[in-house]
What we know:
Helices cover 31% and strands 25% of the residues. By secondary structure, it is an alpha+beta fold. The strands form seven sheets. Strands 3, 6, 7, 8, 9, 10, 11, 12, 13, 14, 15, 16, 17 and 18 form a 14-stranded antiparallel β-sheet that branches. A four-stranded antiparallel β-sheet has the order 1-2-4-5, with no helix packed on it.
Amino acid sequence: MSGELVQILEGNTFVVSDARGDIEASLTDPTGLFSFDTRFLSEWILTIDGKRLNALSTDDLQYFETRFFLVPGTGTVYVDSKLSVIRQRSVGEGFHEVITILNHDEEPVDLEVRLSAGNDFADLFEVKDALKKKGIYENRVEDGRLVLAYHRDTFRRETWISATAPASIDKGGLTFSAHVEPHGEWKTELDIAAVSASWGEDVGPTGARGKKRASGMARGLDKWLERAPRLECDWDPLKLIYQRSLVDLAALRFSTRTMPGQSLPAAGLPWFMTMFGRDSIFTSLQALPFTPELAATTLMALGERQGSRVDDFRDEDPGRICHEMRYGEMTAFEERPHSPYYGCADATALYVVLLDEYELWTGDRKLVRDLEYEARAALRWIDEYADLQGNGYVWYKRRNEKTGLENQCWKDSWDSISYRDGRLPGFPRATCELQGYAYDAKMRAARLAREIWRDPAFADDLEKQAADLKRRFNRDFWVEDDEYFALALDTEGKQVDSLSSNNGHLLWSGIVDKSKAKAVARHLMGPRLWSGWGVRTLAEGEARYNPIGYHVGTVWPFDNSFIAWGLRRYGFKEEAAEIAAGILDAAAFFLGRLPEAFGGYERGVTKYPVQYPTACSPQAWSTGAPLLFLRTMLGLEPYGDHLVVDPALPVGLGHIALLDIPGRWGRIDAFGRGRVDVDKKQSLRRQLGAPARGAGKRRR
């Protein structure tokens, strides 16, 4: 399928179609109706008298509902049709569709309306990797509906299709005989239900619930928006960006089967509509001042699935926080390890970071006490299982060599970790930000141990461990000649010496010595990393730098939001405002919705940010980035039962007011006015000569 795609989603279920509302998917095409990692509809084509329709426009009603305005083909360039068609669709655990045909002529008309239906029941991994099915298909007509079915041993999936208007149903679709009076209309409603059963469960519909479900989702969205802080500002695009972020975050909410009614963020459409440890934690951190309930559910859901044994297939260890949970066929038959899969080296430390940050904002000590066991198990994992080299650092190396993840940091593409000359290090690898997260987890856990768990001896021990880690890290990772932190250490303890955006995460974690922070900030805002739109993942001039390479030169909004938070932590609040201004300018070009990543081209070269070709959108931690930028620009930090406000906003934003910020203080307002002249700072930096490409001695 090519051309413009239209997508609606709710939780783990989403529908992706063309601009006509039709679905015509191939094995490698992420279009169709998907639910819990299975495609339940790969063909859904509307014809009138055997002809496809033309799209006039699409009305994006809500994230879960859309409307297509169509006309039959007339055979001429100028469309002067006597018929028009409105196709309204809302998603639930399946979808509900209303088709209305309007006759604008003075004569009645008789039409054959056909909906062709088919399905490949592809597992999402099969779509990504172009793999073939191993089970048996069966289409049948029963009880006045079309049933598309697939089974493989005890794994069964079915799609049930029914209509309100009388129809002739065959194994390939539904045909209606429509008589439409002059200036009249003909209508039918269709329910497409995604039906799941596996491991011996009874088959039963979870299905679409039509108008009632759509109405309930609309009311739920209204309540979600009402609970969030209210934004007032002089720069109108920021209002759109904020609203888009809140709505997309609502769309990406996902309830696990063990915690119905409670939501955590799914990672992103189309490939990642499920629980991801790292992504859910980062997004919950970004959204804490706005929707703290996401963090609570994330902590409970991930704690529920925390590793309990050594399992090489799943890269599982006791105490390790899971990376990804899947429900499709390949996972059910252990052709993929995602039930859940634990192959990430950062989520475990970040879990402890989120637990502490959540308590700082909400004062919810009960949850901290309830999750004490999980937090202590996570800390033990850092010391006992992550230290693969026995030198006190966090390392990763997959044990599942066939289907496990090779790179288990957030930059998880194959070429993301490289020396400055382009060589790739062997495994295990110790990337720099993992050490920062471990340091931060120990420091935060020390506070929880002393103040809530009432274990001062444990707190003292954690602080000693953290201090030792910080001392060794600033010695072993520091690239002395060029004054930045190496991307990683290799198996021999040598520096993987590329300059990367990971330095910003180190500031956020607090592991950077104050004496080194100014040099780090100078590199982050220098021309090799700073594009004008944001900080690149890999510096220009490194051998593998590519402005449209996934983790080797693109700009990631999520990455930049934590870099800005890190700059604020070390007192570089004007630089943090500069990053916020660049990413928010980009968001305005993307109509308020930041993609997963965009091109790292110099801003002077392009008048607009260049879209990365396969970026997820909406994507949870990109959706959360504007929320974290609001926090960093306003300087919001919890301090006991109070909220500190220390604004540093770009001049172009003018006045900002964030009203009714929730927290342990109840609700409070924050105000700020733009005083940071971003353009002047950039001009001054150029005049003073920030570190240029190739500056300093190059160690080989």
